[in-house]
């Protein structure tokens, strides 16, 4: 058998391996949180959007929630201002809020443009539109950090309507309070809130690390899948630190409020979403609720 024929057969095997996953999650809502360094590399951005559009075209119902923190910091510095953070949250005064809204709007429409170029209809929407994300002021250990919002309500019907009309929603994480004041929202928090409100089947965080490790200093201890109770134990043992700590807390909260599975993926790996969702082995960490049937990646 020729080498070219072997190559074709390998491609066929990949498609057959993906088939049970496509069947299993047909019509299911998938929330993808996209941000961090993954947004800066144009080649990686292209591959992430290719993944999401493919999910859409094979029958999933994806929604993107994007950040833009690194681009916001770049513009703040260009304006001769200095970015300030408290516990990982950007201190957002009135002038900073103007820059945040400008940059996030630009990022949002660039993602819409990219998705549309791949033949999928996309709608960019901010948390302000239709009262999608209603917030109140967020405090960090009692400290006022400016126009940073804590989500108190998600108008999920807007998103259900867009999905029903066959659009791919792309959400910009800003919102308004009861007095119609604009607030910046942490993109992880926004993705988690949207996933909970829509009882999403999957919530995927694209990060700068491979996943959750039992021992962060030992790469061989990557956990492919764990119950939400096991995730809590890892937190209690103090095994989780740094930026993974709030992310894992968000994952646990999402699972406990109705999301079936949460995935933590290394967004620096090209096509990480497809590798995690459509292959037996997967590449990241999947967290699931004890009420859910165990999803063993080798079961197929």
Report the biggest beta sheet as strand number plus sense, adding barrel if it closes: 8 strands, mixed
User: What fraction, in percent, of the residue positions are helical?
Assistant: 40-55%
Please count the helical segments: 9
Number of strands: 14
Question: CA-to-CA gap between the ends?
Answer: 28 Å
Q: H/E element string?
A: HEHEHEEHEEEHEEEHEEHHEHE
Low-confidence stretches: 294-300
Approximately how much beta-strand content do the residues carry? 15-25%
Shape: globular
Task: Please give the oligomerization state of what you see.
Answer: single chain
The whole-number mean of residue pLDDT values reads 87
Radius of gyration: 19 Å
What structural class do the secondary elements suggest? Answer: alpha/beta
Your description of this structure?
41% of the residues lie in helices and 24% in strands. By secondary structure, it is an alpha/beta fold. The radius of gyration is 19 Å and the shape is globular.
Quick rundown:
This protein has 300 residues and is an alpha/beta fold. The chain contains nine helices and 14 strands.
For this entry, give a set of tags.
globular; 24% strand; two-stranded antiparallel sheet; 14 strands; alpha/beta; 300 residues; 41% helix; 8-stranded mixed β-sheet
């Amino acid at each position: 058998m020729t080498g070219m024929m072997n190559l074709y057969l390998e491609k066929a095997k990949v498609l057959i391996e993906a088939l049970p996953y496509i069947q299993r999650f047909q019509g299911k809502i998938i929330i993808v949180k996209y941000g961090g360094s993954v947004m800066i590399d144009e080649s990686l951005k292209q591959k992430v959007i290719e993944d999401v559009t493919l999910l859409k075209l094979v029958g999933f119902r994806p929604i993107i929630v994007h950040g833009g923190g690194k681009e916001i910091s770049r513009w703040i510095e260009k304006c001769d201002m200095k970015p300030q953070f408290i516990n990982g949250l950007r201190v957002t005064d009135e002038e900073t809020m103007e820059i945040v809204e400008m940059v996030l709007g630009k990022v949002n429409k660039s993602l819409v443009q990219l998705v549309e170029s791949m033949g999928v209809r996309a709608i960019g929407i901010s948390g302000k539109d239709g009262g999608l994300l209603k917030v109140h002021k967020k405090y960090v250990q009692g400290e006022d950090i400016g126009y940073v919002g804590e989500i108190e309500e998600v108008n999920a019907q807007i998103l259900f309507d867009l999905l029903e009309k066959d659009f791919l929603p792309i959400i910009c994480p800003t919102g308004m309070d009861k007095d119609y004041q604009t607030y910046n929202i942490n993109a992880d928090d926004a993705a988690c809130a949207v996933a909970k409100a829509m009882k999403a089947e999957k919530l995927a965080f694209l990060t700068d690390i491979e996943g959750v490790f039992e021992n962060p200093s030992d790469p061989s201890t990557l956990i492919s899948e764990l119950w939400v109770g096991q995730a809590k134990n890892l937190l209690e043992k103090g095994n989780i630190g740094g930026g993974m700590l709030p992310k894992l807390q968000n994952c646990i909260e999402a699972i406990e409020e109705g999301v079936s599975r949460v995935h933590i993926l290394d967004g620096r790996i090209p096509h990480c979403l497809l590798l995690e969702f459509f292959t037996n082995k997967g590449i990241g960490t999947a967290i699931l609720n004890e009420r859910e049937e165990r999803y063993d990646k080798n079961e197929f």
